[in-house]
Amino acid sequence: MKKYFIPGVAMICAILTATGQPVRYGTGLPATGSEKPAHTIFTNPGEDCSTGMGISWASPVGTIAAVQLIEGTDTVMIASEGYLCTTFDSINSKLGDNSDVYERHVFDKHSVMLTGLKPDTKYSYKIVTGEGTDTEVSDPRFFRTAGADSWKAAVIGDFHHYSPLWRRLDASMAMLEVLDSVSGGFDWVLSPGDQCAWGGSYNYWTELSEQPSYINYMWGAVQGNHDNMSRDKELTDAYFRDTHAHPHNGYVGQEGVVYWFKYGDVLFLMLNNEAMRTAESLAPVFEWMENVVAANPARYIVVVEHYEWLIGTDGSDSQLDRFRDVFDRLGVDLAISGNNHAYLRTRALRDRKPVAAGRGTFYVVASSSDDSRGRELKPLAANEEIISTRWSEGAKTVGAMLMDVNPHRIVMTLYDREGRVCDAFTVPARR
Ligand SMILES: [Fe+2]
Asked: How many whole angstroms from 180 Cα to the centroid of ligand 1?
């Protein structure tokens, strides 16, 4: 994949480190953000990814805008009415040159839910803004609908894009290129969160959206704690909600943040750990999960949240015991998390005990991928009997997984930046 940056406002520099290795970094956007009439464009899952996708972007207030959807020789225009978004107005942040700034972004937020798509089909689309002689058309972006019996997703998170340390983004995007190479191509990207260091810094989302992996793929992500915060530690789901176009099928108060979607045979339940901090707040989550699973039979059930099921660095308890009874009851096949910046994977578990694959839930804590914020492994302090594998490269960890699905099994494989396999396990179909 070729590197892509915003002409005129971002650039690539190359310097040599003491070891002679080239280090690239971008200067990022100015405080005023992108000047494009449609920017911060993301492709997100529709409720049924064989026929639907969500398209999110921002345009100057009052701009006439539409999605131009292209499949083969067919072109369809879908008009969009945005709504005024002030979520990112006057947010304390840092620019790529490390200068302090208040980012001021007021725009029309657009969310278009594409429907009626053809299954297993590659689409492109452009955002068309203005009218008459003022019409502008964005560069094309791409996605593939679900529908094939076999498909692959890249699983990557905890890269904490931060403009002053652009190398984090380069490391994680290079990791996706490695996954692309070793897999022979994947179909979309699943992220357990922390795409941004500060989700309140809108420029960081805009800069992410210009990366090839965001241009070329649909991203299904959960909100990480960093995506939920600003530099001033203001915490809100609005940063994540107002940069994405998710199905509004979450429980009350979490529409557009908590959501579910189907990609082929897999039902994904995408949770928000920031809304699950108390025992009382888990009740609506469990009720929602039970209702969604009952209403949407699927061969596989995968749950994703950001906070780790077990502490990757030493194996001690974390979120697992809050969820395991419900996961047992619902027959969750795979539970993916992040946050801990060290990879951990359990054996298949039921009733908190190891069982044969196909009879329980595999719990995975994804590694970090930014060559910056990884964690050293310590001796196991607990849960040795249920933990299968841990992996870390210390602070400078870069790793990601490939999720390879067919009607018989899911194969999850962890790779390092060299494309070496660091863990692999098989989740058999049990439905
Ligand atoms: Fe993180």
From this structure: 23
Instruction: Say how far apart CA 273 and CA 296 lie, in whole Å.
Output: 23
pLDDT digits over 55-87, tens only? 999 999 999 999 999 999 999 999 999 999 999
Please give the distance, rounded to the nearest whole angstrom, from the Cα atom of residue 160 to the centre of ligand 1: 6
- What is the model's pTM? 0.94
Contacts 24+ apart (CB under 8 A), 86-91: 87/236, 87/238, 87/239, 87/242, 88/200, 88/202, 88/239, 88/242, 91/200, 91/201, 91/202, 91/230, 91/231, 91/232
Pick the CATH number of 39-143 from 3.90.1150.10, 3.90.950.10, 3.40.50.1110, 2.60.40.10: 2.60.40.10
Q: 25-39, 304-318, 334-348, 397-411: which has the minimum mean pLDDT?
A: 25-39
Ligand 1 midpoint to CA 310 (Å): 15
CA-based end-to-end distance of the chain: 37
